[in-house]
Amino acid sequence: MTTPTRQLGPPAALACVAVGLLLCLSPWGRPEYALPLGMLFALLGLADASTLPWTKSLSRFVLQACVVVLGLGLSLHELARAGGTGIAFAFGTIVLTFAAGYALGSMLGIGKPITTLLSSGTAICGGSAIAAVSGVIGATSAEIAVATGVVFLLNAAGLYLLPWLGDLMHMSHAQFGVWSAISIHDVSSVVGASGRFKEITPPPAEGSDAQTIATAVKLARALWIAPICLAIGFSLARSSDRKASRGSPVPLFVLLFVVASAVRTLFPQIGPVHTDWIKPAATHGMAFALFLIGLGLSKKTLASVGWRAFVLGLSLWVLISLASLAVVRLTIA
What are the residue ranges of helices labelled H in the chain? Predict the structure, then answer.
């Protein structure tokens, strides 16, 4: 007779979250440290999203609030310029990702729902796109878990790998900002990776740094959630036997980011305050959001990610990263 595994109760899990919060508020509160700490707690069974289910919604709120705050560092003119670059890249990369996703998914024998979720998450903005599209196609919780798990693992890899590669290839801030926004799935990892690149590669004396560009380009890509949901819903209405539901609109925090940018345009004197106080606070908040996101990588989540789905997600990630890298290197100084 085996002894049942003892599960730590909520007090112990809350203590782990408190440790993570203190780390994130300290001078060592950096995204690249916070994410693996959350993952470690989850894999050790000390604290995860199942014992503290509210951490998922809290991480989303903190992340989105920090992104909105970063909008105060970007004027509408800079936003339009960076967003225009994102739109120019978006259509081609989205079409390429979906075409390759369905072709590879068919070859690997993966069901269409998971293929659609992974293609959407890779092409647009990771978990946000998966959540929106899942409502349109009527995806099951298991299918959502698989797609989200794959995206989570690749996000973690991108957070560490891309800044190192960008520095190795001597990329400019404009190049890395666009490349990271296209190659990395979620906004959180895009902001973290571009911030890390800014630390290891000095930003230009004039013009926007990689983090500012990456945030604007990524949020411009998030605007494609609405048309993609409409297109998928129209396709399902014509040919699928799955029950389609209304997809999510453009995320509110994207619109609030634009509002924050408008405030910066109207009140440019915010600039020094944003640089000295607001942006550092947002960086610590982003670290805490990534710590909470790390708690989602439990053993159960890892077990749900089959090798076929992971191969599909990895293949799409490599494809879009290489394709966008080639275009960025050829078109952006």
Answer: 10-25, 31-43, 54-70, 76-108, 112-123, 127-137, 141-168, 173-183, 187-200, 210-222, 225-239, 252-266, 270-273, 279-294, 299-304, 307-331
